């Protein structure tokens, strides 16, 4: 017998499994609204022109080699990433109080951050919004072994933020607990706090001395404006808090498979930041030694060249606009086909996803009868929709809710 005879089959990943099922479906009307990746109006993946141009320059530069990076990655990349997130005027950054390390996209940033907390932070309790991106639980719970707790986030009645529930759950958190906050474009709900609500969240975080861990996977992708999407992070940093930030370039620069991201830890003094940096590197060393070169080099080119940076911002705004146009188109089509119910939340929500409010049985009908692939919690990726398919989608929703 095999030494692996006792290895059980791992449960399929809820999101990655949808793409497999979609590929296997032979129906020509099929629609994949499960993936968290941008698609053009024609349903194709998009490589941004700014990224293509950056790559061409990198290839043309014969002086580049393939040497290892340091454990923390490219220092210029880290500095530019910090500036992108915290802003050019951030006093904490200017004072050297932020330690940043290049990571394997946002997931890697969360993983390195969680491992750092496990080793060097006294309170082992992590609050996650309910619901949240499913991998948060895997990363903080299974992988880092921290104790997971939920805080109320989504109100299924209003299909908006359960603000009072959120405040009351965080208000009852043990002092010092870690709280994961989606910087913008909350996944899966598409519901974000207003600026006033962020102020209220900041107050309870200060009162309970909670440690915020921002997850920023959609900066610039949500509103089309890089600064606007960083407003909550900057509000908390300006208030003088110590916090963590996981950054991803997967969506906003379309670098999904290149795996480019960063973890930043804000400290009260530069001396602590230096020690924290050394410990972030110490987390990286036994995991994968050092991060890859190519994706980070693309980001450095795009962020440091004014022409490429301007082009990127235009393309970013374009992606965000198309997604918002799909929200409008879907809502309009639902009204046209006389689908029962109120669909205002489709346009009120922000970012790549919409939380439709469809039940599991309704989602199953969407997939089984209409070949529309989506997660069974009712989440659809607006980026997977096109103007040409909005009507079909509305018909499918109508049939499923009736
Ligand atoms: N955090 C959230 C909330 C996400 O939605 C995602 C991607 O879907 C990530 C983090 C990280 O993704 P990646 O590891 O591809 O950067």
TrEMBL record:
Keywords: Aminotransferase, Pyridoxal phosphate, Transferase
Record domain Aminotransferase class I/classII large: where: 29-397
CC cofactor: pyridoxal 5'-phosphate
Keyword Transferase recorded: yes
Superkingdom assignment: Eukaryota
Entry EC number(s): 2.6.1.1
Record's catalysed reaction(s): L-aspartate + 2-oxoglutarate = oxaloacetate + L-glutamate
UniProt family annotation: Belongs to the class-I pyridoxal-phosphate-dependent aminotransferase family.
NCBIfam families the UniProt entry points to: PRK09257.1
Subunit comment: Homodimer.
Miscellaneous section: In eukaryotes there are cytoplasmic, mitochondrial and chloroplastic isozymes.
PANTHER family: ASPARTATE AMINOTRANSFERASE, ASPARTATE AMINOTRANSFERASE, MITOCHONDRIAL
Stated name of the protein: Aspartate aminotransferase
